[in-house]
Write a structure and sequence with these properties.
Elements (H helix, E strand, L loop, with lengths): L1 H22 L52 E7 L2 H12 L6 H8 L10 E5 L4 H7 L3 H13 L7 E3 L11 H7 L4 E3 L9 E9 L3 H12 L4 E9 L2
Parallel strand pairs: 1-6, 2-5, 5-6
Antiparallel strand pairs: 3-4
Length: about 240
Amino acid sequence: MKLLRQRFSRTGRRVTGAVVNTIFPPRCAGCGHRGSWVCSLCAPDIQRIDEVSCQRCAVPLGERCVCFELDGSLEMLRAAAAYQGWVRAAIISFKYEGERARSGHLGALATELLPAFGDNVSLVPVPLHPRRVRERGYNQAALLAEAIGRACGVRVERPILRAVATRRQVGLSANERAQNVIDAFLISPGSRLRDRRFVLVDDVVTTGATLGACARTLRSAGAAWVGALTIARER
């Protein structure tokens, strides 16, 4: 019976996705034309971060290391592209305009970076506070983690809870961002994290304050190693 329900659930998601794509076909984040998440003309307008100056903070080649901004619990950070152009527009539409179907396309930008974190890792989406999930209807980081996990065959877990409805990080200084997320996260009861390796997943990294707070929470519960993977990097 459980297997049957799972099959019906997968079929339902495929049918729903087909209907949505028929009524509301993908929209190019660059020019707005319907038919694809990014058209062939706009696709080249992306600044991929293929080479980095620092293996920990992963600033683009030629940029100054910003490891001093990262929490000591965060061992490694990777981002697929700069937060600009159609990548920025796609993330904004995905995050704030209900275009959750963009998760597969955005997640695909980061899949080739996952092997850099090594074997035996589990993906952990940065959690939203339940109130924010109700307002938005979904957690964008969770959708990205699921898309990356499916593509790479890596398990997704949710051992962190967001216990405090913090202010939005947008517009805050680096110090304000760090202060804003102090004690904002808790470990979900029953989670078994000791001696395990995790990769946090989020849409954009700016100063790394939120990722650092999540990493610190995981390490406090016994995690052996925590890295972070995002679609874009704002600076």
